[in-house]
Design goal:
Elements: E1 11-15, H1 27-35, E2 38-41, H2 44-51, E3 61-62, H3 68-80, E4 84-88, H4 101-109, E5 114-117, H5 122-130, E6 137-142, H6 147-156, E7 163-168, H7 173-184, E8 189-194, E9 202-207, H8 208-215, E10 224-228
Parallel strand pairs: 1-4, 1-5, 2-3, 2-4, 6-7
Antiparallel strand pairs: 7-10, 8-9, 8-10
The protein binds S-adenosylmethionine.
């Protein structure tokens, strides 16, 4: 366990950040960031809005998909030398469809401590408020951009007894709903969760055909989580 009543124990800390509502930035996250010897951010400018009223010990450094391979061993070296290393991404929990996996693996492989400073994960937020079954979940991250590949994935998981969750971009969301209807039919219960915790949060749950009709009336801009219920489920 890592206690921050005094100073945090040396280790890698995966610090979750808000997915929209800045009030979801936790006191513990602030405390770790302030006391960290190294702060690694996916985008230092993006994270700077969270640091505005904080006195930081360290200068934030970039850690993103393009330098992750080089940076991961360096951050692990810092942990090995007894430092507190905080890792943040732009939104939500680092490592979940975001940079983080490589440094966590590096630390685990070397037997170094890794801690979580928990907060939101967009798919879990959507799942919890969707009305779809919450007994089991299959999270697929981002689906492939091409229609044929997406449809193959839906066909592959057609009989899944778990609720399926994935992330989709604003550019592909309309096509993605079409693909769900093509492969799984208009009666399959789905949930579209848009702009969670933000001003224009919209959650549409119901048969895919009906959700598609409602979706056509709202803006397709923003960030989306899509959930698909098991066959036969209805609200
Ligand atoms: N690490 C993040 C997490 O813990 O959820 C996920 C990062 S991933 C690069 C970004 C994707 O998460 C977006 O494209 C969108 O699909 C989803 N997402 C993030 N914030 C969201 C929000 N406020 N509402 C709906 N979906 C969101």
């Amino acid at each position: 366990m890592a206690s921050e009543d005094t100073s945090p124990a040396p280790g890698l800390y995966l610090v979750a950040t808000p997915i929209g509502n800045l009030s979801d930035w936790t006191p513990r996250a602030q405390c770790i960031v302030q006391q960290a010897d190294y702060i690694a951010c996916e985008d230092t400018r993006h994270s700077s809005r969270l640091f505005q009223n904080l006195e930081l010990k360290a200068h934030p450094q970039a850690y993103h998909e393009h330098n992750e391979q080089q940076q991961a061993p360096k951050l692990a070296d810092a942990v090995a030398s007894g430092k507190v290393v905080a890792l943040l991404t732009d939104a939500g929990t680092p490592g979940i469809s975001d940079p983080g996996f490589r440094v966590v693996r590096e630390c685990r492989a070397r037997g170094l401590p890794v801690f979580s400073v928990p907060g939101p994960v967009a798919f879990a937020v959507a799942w919890s408020i969707s009305g779809l079954p919450t007994d089991s979940l299959l999270f697929l991250g981002f689906l492939p951009p091409k229609t044929a590949a997406r449809q193959r994935i839906f066909a592959q998981h057609k009989e899944s007894t778990a609720t399926i969750a994935f992330y989709e971009s604003t550019h592909r969301i309309a096509k993605c709903i079409n693909d769900i209807i093509t492969v799984l039919g208009p009666e399959r219960c789905i949930c579209l969760a848009r702009e969670l915790t933000k001003l224009h949060e919209t959650v549409l749950t119901g048969p895919a055909g009906e959700v598609q009709a409602q979706f056509e009336k709202i803006s397709s801009k923003g960030e989306f989580v899509v959930l698909i219920a098991k066959e036969g489920f209805s609200l």
